[in-house]
Amino acid sequence: MRDYEFTVVIEKDEDGRFVAICPALQGCYTEGETEEEARQLIEDAIRLHIESRLARNEPISEEVRSHKVRIAV
């Protein structure tokens, strides 16, 4: 068994729901009523995504780096 670590972005949408996205895994996202629910759901989504790719002998994307950028407009 191998451990994987990914960046997760959680945003609040216009309806007040929390959307969780894993940018390194294309199409891996979910949403919840609370930030905590979205966090738990994205962990499950990431696990299922990785298990599916491994079952099909597909590579798992690995992050190189993530950082925040501040822009003044």
Describe this structure in words.
The chain is an alpha+beta fold and 73 residues long. The protein has a single domain (1-73), classed as Double Stranded RNA Binding Domain. It has one helix at 35-55; strands at 9-12, 18-21, 29-32. It has a three-stranded antiparallel sheet. Strand 1 (9-12) and strand 2 form a beta hairpin. It starts with 8 loop residues before the first strand and ends in an 18-residue tail after the last helix. The mean pLDDT is 95.
Topology, element by element:
Layout: E1 9-12, E2 18-21, E3 29-32, H1 35-55
Antiparallel strand pairs: 1-2, 2-3
In short:
By secondary structure, the chain is an alpha+beta fold.
